[in-house]
Amino acid sequence: MKYRSLSRDYLYIGITCLALLFVSKISFGQDYNQNYGENTKPKKTFASHLFFGGGLGLQFGSITLIEISPMVGYKITPKFSIGLSPTYKYYSYNYAGYGKVNTNVFGGSIFSRYFIFENIFAHVEYETLAYNTKEPNQPTYMQQYNSFFVGGGYNQRIGGNSAMFILVLWNLNDTQYSPYSNPVIRVGFSVGL
After folding, report:
1. Dihedrals φ, ψ of 34, to 5°?
2. What domains are defined for the chain?
3. Are the C-beta atoms of residues 165 and 153 closer than 8 Å to each other?
């Protein structure tokens, strides 16, 4: 009798294992298409390739700088992306012999990035800036400056689709009127959808 009871227990355990296996196959099968073994992962949409971010700069003292540079980009492939970044900067500083000078800078850039390694990327960017300058006792005038940057950066993920990056760029169009001195170092963030 003990023998029959033990074999009946094995029969119940076997049926229970088969039932669990069948239930797990049904729930696992919900990820598959009606065609055997074809995965139905959702196709990536246009929005899933987008990423957003930018930079913010603040400096106060003898030179006041407020900079806002939002960014939007599109990942063409997992390693290659393109994007654009409008820019606004406000400068206020004391110009020797003239007094306080206020400058508004408007512009933007287009860029591309290629990830060479997981976190290291090459960066190419074309930027145009228009200066609206008002000096004491002088009329307001507009000046434009174009920069062509090459360089690279490091991208550090900070969770999910978010990352912080640092760029080291070289302005190939550096002149005495350039608003930058080489190398140009930027820090920013990005968030993907």
Report:
1. -65, -30
2. 1-41 (no CATH), 47-192 (2.40.160)
3. yes
Distance CA 63, CA 102 (A): 10
Query: What confidence tens digit (pLDDT) does each residue in 72-81 have?
Result: 999 999 899 9
Residue whose pair of structure tokens reads 């990423």 in the numeric block: 51
Name the band, by pLDDT with cuts 50, 70 and 90, for residue 175: confident
Residue type, 50: L
- Residue 63 CB burial class (10 angstroms; 0-12, 13-18, ≥19): exposed
Token pair 């992306």 in the structure block, residue: 81
- The Cα–Cα gap between 54 and 61 comes to 24
Chain position carrying tokens 């689709």: 161
**What letter would DSSP give residue 116?**
S
| 179 DSSP assignment | S
Question: Whose CA is closest to 182, among 169, 192, 191?
Answer: 169
d(CA 164, CA 53): 9
Distance CA(87)–CA(92), nearest Å, equals: 17
